[in-house]
Amino acid sequence: MKKILLIFSLTILIAASASAQSGIGIRGGANFFNFGGDDVADNNYTNRTGFHAGIYASILGGSAISLEPGVYYSIKGTQNKDAANTRSVLDYVDVPLLLRLKVGEGFNFFGGPQVSFLVKSKFEGDFGNSTVSINTNNIKDTDVGFVFGIGYNLPKGVNVQGSYDYGLTPIFKNSNADVYNRGFKVSLGYTF
Question: Is-annotated flag, keyword Signal (predicted)?
């Protein structure tokens, strides 16, 4: 199922880039993720820095409203303030479908749904001079949420944006814990 959705997403991107009113681009940047939800209030979780990189298509890019499907590799997770500096490292392929509204000269607001597919997950900790890493299969394979943010288009196809990912699917398997992926992204992109 994951492969079918990824192939479908890539097909949309390629078809959109072939349209006369579309553009295709690359985007990447920094992630600042943490676990959110009611069951994390008593924990010492802090933002974990990761990255994201991928491609997007801008459908009807010349109008005030555009549709932007994308496919990104994204590293999320969280960090704990403890003696071993324990952290979760969650690698996903994010597939957002954003609606972008241009307001003013260069500015735009955007938002839309996102489905994320887990690539790998592990828990790490620092003990002495070494890092211990344990792969885990306790993370759900799919994460569903919303993305919203603000962007600015610079000259010559360059764009910058800031966004927030609001996960709606609890991330742990076989658990009633109210814990979600939540975090900020800062991105730099280029539309060809």
Answer: yes
- Please count the residues of the chain: 192
Tokens of 90: 């969650």
Q: From CA 101, how far away is CA 150, in angstroms rounded?
A: 10
Q: Three-state SS for 188? A: strand
- Better-scored residue on pLDDT, 91 or 127: 91
Angle (CA) 19-23-26 rounded to 5° is: 140
d(C-alpha 22, C-alpha 192), whole Å: 10
pTM of the model: 0.85
Mean pLDDT score, 11-40: 76
Domain that holds residue 67: 2-191
Indicate the residue type of 24: I
Other beta carbons within 10 angstroms of residue 38's beta carbon come to 9
What's the token pair of residue 140? 């759900």
CATH of the domain at 51: 2.40.160.20
What's the structural domain count of the chain?
A: 1
> Does pLDDT of 189 surpass 50?
yes
Nearest-angstrom CA–CA distance, 95 and 76: 14
The encoded tokens of residue 189 equal 């992109």
